[in-house]
Write a structure and sequence with these properties.
alpha+beta; 8-stranded mixed sheet; 8 strands; globular
């Protein structure tokens, strides 16, 4: 993935009613491994990675990259919210020349169904709108992933297109902090 762009990183932690979105640290390593090894989490993301491989390859401080927020609830890592630049070679773009910021998220199953994903993504989108005023954000999810699709719509993403990628039909939407007229 391409760099997010010129931005002060890490930002001050983002605080919501129940969560803190922050830069990763060494204490997050086990949760990163759990996320990427989980068959539940990775159902629509290419499947789980082998835990033994992750244990060997995961850096001591994983995800220390601009655009990667750890979602922390009461001092425990429950997931990730990330912004990356969408590769120009992939389908789905709304800007000439591609390279749009793409929102992604993964939460551990124990955090599902409590509104944490909406809370974390909303805070991250607010940060993004301040850091990159007027720049759109895209999101891509499998059509079969009802929960992710529902979250995208609830967050205010508007469908742009559907296409086949990774052997499945994908929903592609855009979010903009620019007020829409009408």
């Amino acid at each position: 993935m391409a760099e997010l762009g010129p931005v002060v990183w890490p930002p001050a932690p983002l605080r919501t009613g129940r969560l803190v979105l922050r830069e990763s640290s060494g204490r997050d390593r086990a949760a990163f491994i759990d996320l990427f090894a989980s068959s539940e989490v990775r159902t629509y993301l290419g499947g789980p990675r082998p835990r033994a491989v992750l244990e060997k390859e995961m850096p001591e401080v994983p995800g220390r990259t601009p655009g990667v927020f750890v979602a922390d609830h009461d001092g425990a890592t429950i997931g990730l919210v990330t912004f990356d630049r969408r590769d120009a070679e992939r389908p789905g773009h709304v800007c000439p020349g591609a390279g749009e910021a793409e929102l992604s998220y993964m939460l551990l199953p124990r955090a599902w169904g409590r509104g944490y994903a909406f809370e974390a993504c909303s805070a991250a989108l607010g940060w993004f709108a301040d850091a990159f005023p007027g720049e759109p954000v895209v999101l891509c999810t499998q059509v079969a992933n009802d929960r992710s699709l529902g979250l995208a719509v609830k967050l205010g993403f508007t469908a742009v297109e559907r296409f086949e990628e990774f052997g499945a039909e994908q929903w592609f939407g855009v979010w903009s902090s620019v007020p829409r007229s009408g």
